[in-house]
Amino acid sequence: MSIRLFLRSETNFVTRKANFAYFLNYIYSITRNMKYVKLSQTADLMPTLGLGTWQASPEVIESTVYKALELGYRHIDTAFNYNNEEAIGNAINKWINIGKGARKDLFITTKLPHVGNRASDVKKFLDLQLKRLQMEYVDLYLIHVPFGFHCDPETLTPVVRSTGEYDLDMDTDHISTWKEMEACQKEGRIRNIGLSNFNESQMLKIIKACTVKPQVLQVELHAYFQQLDLRKFCSEHDIVVTAYAPLGSPGAKDHFVNKYNYSPDAFPDLLGHPEVNEIAKTHDKTPAQVLLRYLIQQKIVVIPKSTSEKRLKENADLYDFELTPAEVNRIKKLDKGEEGRIFNFLFWKGVENHPEYPFKLASAVN
Predict the structure, then answer these.
(1) How far apart are alpha carbons 131 and 151 in whole angstroms?
(2) What's the CA dihedral at 214, 137, 220, 174 to 10 degrees?
(3) What pLDDT shows up at residue 6?
(4) Among 201, 199, 198, 243, which residue's Cα sits nearest to residue 220?
(5) pTM for the full model?
(6) What CA–CA distance (Å, rounded) separates 327 from 277?
(7) Do 190 and 19 contact (CB within 8 A), yes or no?
(8) Which of 157, 218, 226, 310 has its CA 20 to 30 A from that of 299?
(9) DSSP label of 311
(10) 136-139: long-range pairs with CB below 8 Å, 24+
């Protein structure tokens, strides 16, 4: 709820004043309790809770980001492929310009797209993304996926062949792309650099060749797909793990069908799982809060997406309870390994033929 709407609902001045103080205390408590992880190269503090913005249209996400900032969110995650960076920039700019906060208070993540996954395109896309976001720098810039597509220069979207297959850039070179990202960081346009959807061997190759090692790995991670080996690798290399789809991405199936005419064979219902619901009742919390708390309690950053003000509030209310070791173990046992993976990227027809496709095909197909 915005301050204006909050006050408008009250007619008595004394009541309004009291409720205004309550509202400010609520915002302060969320911000104060917003836990952080420290990034190893820069010592920047990254909030463990962020707002995911995938599948959110520009007209919806602008008001959603502004609401989230009002509610105390300080970490916003976006990407070139989400087609909403400009709307997010508008919301942040408005919030700053009316004196609600400063740019330095925020942690903004965006990503190099699959159509720009080559050294020669890093600066071009970063410049465009900074312009859309109306910022001089981003706090975190990730290579979105380890494979690349050829780019239609008019639309900045992947070239798709008449067969429906995506035109793969078979010359994707992670090392040269990473070195360009290091150069952009040195120029001050990126605070931290990282990866998304990379596997262990791909990451290790970059670590061995880099000057600045990856600070963050963003991957699909939830109770059905807990990525224990990959998390162990990241811990050994001081790489922070960010979980996308931390609730199992309930809305993803419709997106796959509507946009790509692709439907996974099975789709999880973590929010309806009896174990999760039983734990939620014990703590007087929602299933979503339990699933998010489970991850942040293990020092994993979470970026749940919601456009509902009610859920935005609920998703932020994670720091006043703790799961017991027994409860943690119950959720840990829900892990299905590779069978729990939702995002295998096969909705991009032919992507499995790219030499840098990161998953084993037999285990990636749901």
Answers:
(1) 20
(2) -50
(3) 40
(4) 243
(5) 0.87
(6) 12
(7) no
(8) 310
(9) H
(10) 136/188, 136/189, 137/188, 137/189, 137/190, 137/191, 138/108, 138/109, 138/110, 138/189, 138/190, 138/191, 139/44, 139/46, 139/106, 139/107, 139/108, 139/109, 139/191, 139/192
Residue 49 is given by DSSP the state B
What is the Cα–Cα distance from 141 to 42, expressed in whole angstroms? 14
**Mean pLDDT across 268-289:** 95
Q: What does residue 291 show for φ and ψ, rounded to 5 degrees?
A: -65, -40
Largest CA distance in the chain: 68
Enumerate the active-site residues.
Answer: 82
Render pLDDT for 164-216 as a digit per residue (tens, 0 to 9).
Answer: 999 999 999 999 999 999 999 999 999 999 999 999 999 999 999 999 999 99
Q: Which two tokens stand for residue 234?
A: 């990241």
**Which residue in this structure is represented by tokens 């239609």?**
152
Strand 190-196 and strand 216-220: the pairing is parallel
Question: 89: which DSSP letter?
Answer: H
